[in-house]
Amino acid sequence: MRTISGLLAFGFVFGLAGCSAGLDMALETGATTFEPGTLIAHVYPTSDSGLLPQTFVVVPQVDGYGFIDLDLAQTVNLTGTLTALLSHPWNAVNAPTTAEPFAGSIQVVKPGTVQSAAVRPDSEGLFSLQVPAGPGYQLYLTPDDPTISPASGEAGLNFGGDQDLSREIAAGVPIFGRITAAGVGVGSAPLALTRLEPGPQATSAAFYTDDDGWFVARAPGPGSYVITVQSGLSVAGAVLPSAQGFVTVAEDGGSVNIDLGKLAAAVLTGTIVDEAGDPVRDAQVKLRSSTLDDVSGSVEVTATTDANGSYVARLIPGQFTAEVLPAYESTWSPTSVPMRVEAGSNDMGIIALSGWQTVNGVVNLPGGGQAANVSVTATQVGWSNYAYSTTTDALGAYTLNLPATDFAVECSPASDSGAAVTRVDLPLGGDPSIMLVAGALVQGVVKSEAGVTAYAVIEIRDAATDSVLGTAMSGDDGTFSLSVDLPTEPIEGAGDTGDTGDTGGDTGDTGGDTGTDTGAADTGA
Amino acid sequence: MSVSLLTTLSGCLDFRPVPWQEPNASPEMRTVYPDADTTVSITAQGAQAVGVIVEDEDTVTFIWSLSRDGYVGTATPIPASEHAQGSQIKLAYDPGLDGQTLTCVVSDGLSEDLTFRWQLEVL
Q1: Domains and CATH numbers, chain B
Q2: Residue A83 and residue A102 in contact, taking contact as beta carbons nearer than 8 Å
Q3: Looking at the complex, does the CB of residue A83 fall below 8 Å from at least one CB of chain B?
Q4: Which phi and psi (to 5°) does residue A27 adopt?
Q5: A8-46 pLDDT tens trace
Q6: Cβ–Cβ gap B31/A457 under 8 Å
């Protein structure tokens, strides 16, 4: 570690406050408010450490990232009993007064981080959760049956130590309505209710319309909500497009009706074969609508091929794209085919899959010379996002057998190679030669109150894009080091990122830091 | 009898000392998260990471699979320190994962495999 100047120390303290508030703001609004070069570090400690995965924000200073302290918070126990005042679905006024054990799930999560825990309480409503200590948590209570008890959320929870999180869930108010298709009620349609405001966007478990298309669900209170019709097959076997209906709920509830349009039945059949004409089994056929006839919304249905390579899917008329995705262990490439689906039977015939390609490439060091012993991972762009890995030989050469698609290739050289984890696009048929970049050095130590934390996995991401820049593991002394290739302009002039005087930060996380190092990391709280 | 046997053997066999070879060591677990043999709860609020890092002087393979869906093709390696090798997957919210068992088999191809299992629960 090294001593930093007073100006940097000043910037560091406020940098923590600023970045910490920025993270929460970004997480809650979905905005990317980070300064260029800001990194996110997800830390996964070894399970026998008694510590849990945690996320840090790493703010660049004027001359780099310095030596980063990733100070893991201790684990806190959240226990308690959940009970719920269950209501008859249509009862808005005469709320029940007898609470029963809560049947559902409880989740505590810090948005945008890896800090979360979820569990189902037992039959008595008792539960126990463990999360890292700190502020900025949200709590979600999701009952199994949203027709008698509302899904709800709370924000701004601070867990400084073990805590009793017992709650009695109020009965809420009813939201009711009807789902129809060209005026006719749609039975067994799967629905979900999401609260838009106020408070966190709690989404209910699925609930269903009755035989005539009517539904009712409980909302936690007045506010703005959206009812979502979930795309796919209904329990009754009808194909439903996705749809939404917005509703404002008052003190005594609210209502909304959604008409899906004309739903004509269509059945699609086809066969998937390989280059030799032999059937390909266990391939997924993902059918996504681009436009639907007489219906708004969209439909996505997945079918799987049988031993004869045949598949059957129920749809509604419209223009679709079929993505054929062979299983990972196969040696066939995915393909995509547009198709027009009419009411009634549709035979799409035979789709033939091509084989794999062999990619022979060389990885070179930034200053020239071949890069030996580099981990090379090619990840499919789109499709199934399958990943294939190998290691370069002494001459920096690598060979990968890959499906015939576009790939993104990540090269991870040894930490002492002077090269950064480097990502390049490898389009189908493209040049597989890769030049490593020097990148920016990220080094530091993983520790906690108990001392250094060995063998923790540190995943470094670009805060602006959330893309993974590299992964390292802490050694016996808790230290780690890796070079990363920043896709955004990094460090120059970024030392004042925290000088905005933002007061929303978590000063608690700076406690005990004497400011004698440049560890610009915070738990993002 | 013994003498004649030894005499005979020494006349037809080479008794030079054979170098002792240490048996190949199995991969040694360094980090696993979450704890193996536990239930991993997957929710709509972000992907759940599951990872294994082992130490072995040989090249190690990590094979991930789901009890119903078969092989998991999205695992990525974790480049670690010398002799340490790892693999990680991210489990996004998917109701179809509920009730499945996730298994990671770690093998150096020369000695006994290491196997880690997690029960998946979608909440």
Answers
A1: 24-122 (2.60.40.10)
A2: yes
A3: no
A4: -70, -35
A5: 222 222 233 333 333 433 343 344 467 888 999 999 998
A6: yes
A125's torsion region: left (phi>0), alpha (psi -120 to 50) or beta?
left
Return d(Cα A499, Cα A509) in angstroms, integer. 18
Task: Establish whether the linkage from the previous residue to A36 is cis, with ω within 30° of 0.
Answer: no
> With contact defined as beta carbons under 8 Å apart, do A82 and A106 qualify?
yes
Judge whether A242 and A229 are in contact, CB under 8 Å.
yes
Domain boundaries, chain A: 6-74+440-522, 266-342, 356-435
Altogether, the residues listed in chain B come to a count of: 123
| Chain B residues whose beta carbon lies within 8 Å of the beta carbon of residue A412 | 77, 79
**Phi, psi dihedrals of residue A13, rounded to the nearest 5°:** -60, -45
DSSP string, B30-64: EEEES-TTSEEEE-SSSPEEEEEEEE-SS--EEEE
Cβ distance B13 to B101 under 8 Å? no
What is the ipTM, given to two decimal places?
0.80
Q: What is the dihedral of CA A23, A29, A34, A36, to 10 degrees?
A: 150
Nearest beta carbon to residue B33 from set A47, A385, A470: A47
Q: Average pLDDT, stretch A449-471?
A: 91
Alpha-carbon gap, residue A207 to A229, rounded angstroms: 10
pLDDT digits 0-9 by tens, A295-328: 988 999 999 999 999 999 999 999 999 999 999 9
- Phi and psi at A18, nearest 5°, equal -65, -45
CATH class of the domain at A356-435: mainly beta
CB spacing of A387 vs B73 below 8 angstroms: yes
Architecture of domain A266-342: Sandwich (2.60)
The more confident residue out of A106 and A470 is: A106
Q: Which of A42, A43, A47 to mutate to test the interface with B (most CBs of B within 10 A)?
A: A47
Determine contact, residues A130/A117, Cβ cutoff 8 Å. Answer: yes
In angstroms, how far is the first alpha carbon of chain B from the final one?
77
Tokens 């039977």 belong to: A345
* Whole-angstrom distance, CA of residue A78 vs CA of residue A162: 6
The pLDDT confidence band at residue A506, using thresholds 50, 70 and 90, is: very low
